[in-house]
Fold this sequence. Notes:
By secondary structure, this protein is α+β, with helices and mostly antiparallel strands. Helices cover 20% and strands 31% of the residues.
Amino acid sequence: MQQLFDRRSVLLAGAAMTASTALPAFAQSSAPRRGAPLGPIAKKIAHEITQHGQTRTDNYHWLRDANWQAVIDEPSKLSDEIRTHIEAENAYTKSVLLDPTAKLRADLFEELKGKIKQDDSSVPARDGAWAYATRFRTGGQYPIVYRKAVDAATGEATGAEQILIDGDKESKGEKFWRLQDWEQSPTQDLLAYFVDYEGGNKVTLRFRATANGSDLPYKIEGASAGLVWAKDGRTCFYCLLDDNFRVAKIMRHVVGEDPKTDVMIFEEKDASFQTGIGKTASGDYLIIYRSQSESSDVLILPLTTPTAKPKRFTPYRKGVEYLPDHHGGHFYIRNNSGGAIDFKISKTPVSKTNASNWTDFIPHEAGCFIETVHLYAGHMVREESVDALPRLTVRDMVSGKEHQIDFPEEAYDLSVLRGFEWKTTNLRFTYNSPSTPTETWDYDLNSKARTLRKTQEIPSGHDKNNYVVRRTVAVASDGARVPLTILYHKKTPIDGTAPALLYGYGSYGISMPASFSTARLPLVDRGMVYCIAHIRGGQDRGYQWYLDGKLMKKQNTFSDFARAAEALVEQKFAAPKQIVIEGRSAGGLLVGAVMNQRPELFAGVIGGVAFVDVINTISDAELPLTPPEWTEWGDPIKSKAAFDYMMAYSPYDQVGTKAYPPLFAQTALSDSQVTYWEPTKWVAKLRELSPEAGPFMLNVNMTAGHGGASGRFDRLKEVADSHAFALWCVGKA
């Protein structure tokens, strides 16, 4: 995603390695950098960039490897000079943070590990005569995909386990291994599966015979995860990435034939679109979906005739988002046309897909955001959100009667597990809350009967009555009411003395669920209040909530987050200057911007794979995600207004001489989404301009990508690192 040091920086880095083990906790020291040495000083090479008549100098541009695409594919190709600098950063972080907190991190890791059922498994999902599931073995890092034969009388999976993919065995000898996706064929004699060997999202597609577990003697490289089978069980469709890691082509493949003969059925020629594939719930149509933030374009192809040409569903209309699904003689289309800001569902005959033929089926209801629609042979299930809380609405497709499924808690999260079957009256969903472990339920869409199929086990023990979940609001300066979901231990005093961790994201319309996570509990058990801020830029309070936190309203996202921190103090949930903030990816932009704008509010900042070099990244059309991002942030290449607005909040560009809190930035060499040089440059500039603040620490995973380490226990070690930093910042290390 050359020689480096002057003599002074080498001496400072060496001092860090020898002196820092005796450092006090950050919160206990008022010395420069909380008593830590300065850290590696990156050399400066002036790189001038002129846009809209303004010239800026980026002294750390050189940290972007000239062959960055090759580095993402193969990290060993990183230049020696940049590698030397990154290794020095890692050594500094090790000496200042990781070594002094070694015991704490080990304790945290064991706690986190103890909260995971090591031989956990999913509830088998039926597909005709078979039921498919995943599980882990005790001590194993990677998932095992298996299936069992279904008892025709009971409908339960009672047959012997047949392992289809054994992640622990297949990952042996690999520096990185992640199973990205798998899909059984309609005839269930073949399994298509995607493996990422680098962490950069270019994956390898292979086909496996389910009868004996043997792979066909070829593979398809450079694919993107996701495959759709045609009805014949031999033809399939997949996506190929270009050199910039964007989906460029949709391909048709016949299993057993040379991939060189695969047919391109669609080519994405507009880099501003993000493209992917799926299929309708009925399994009758391939969907080619092209999105552009606030607009979408869809092509369809009948899966009974895989050699047909894709047909555009309706002419593209800028500003209209839609996604069709199929049921009987009609398509049902979730869309926002006609000012349906929170979306509606339209209906049109299969033979008349042009928007001029659409009629309202579920009309728009302001304040009720229709997030997802699930169709079954006899029912429609809508995942909806009202005032930042989810709900499920069920509709009988014959009678038209509707009902909602009720849930008891003040804040909670729901997720429908779609399954493989079309002709079913069973809805499977998960329910959890910040204090309640995940429950997997089967719900009869006709009788409304619920059957609990699984409750998440916490081997080390968990009593939800030991935790308190609260829902409150922070009132923004413009009057917007920002929901806050708060979790704390019942023994934690809510009197304005507790430290807190405040988490946020606020971009791309992605909502932050009020969900259960064992990863939060070690912090909460140590007396920290954990808060999720449902800020603008997400869709937590509907689509308008998203629109009010993007483009020329992006500052709302940052202001909301700062107000959330202030509200925690005002409402006595947290002590002043005892709040650590955390965000990942675009959430890294969030914490980076707020760190510049309101540094006095925070005890520490955690920026994971942080998107912080906003102007440079969004001005570079060659980077993987830049062209599709222009409708999210603005186009600083063409628009001076967008350039000026984005420059005003860009974390890297707005670094100054300020009393910044400590920073722990994490990144990875193979990250194609937020490239490694963004956090690396950020830390270098912070250290240059505010040498007395911080300290600023960078941890670079040399073998992973945007999602971090691939093994489940390795990921827990990364979480333990972040937790140790947070606790250190508030004097609880």
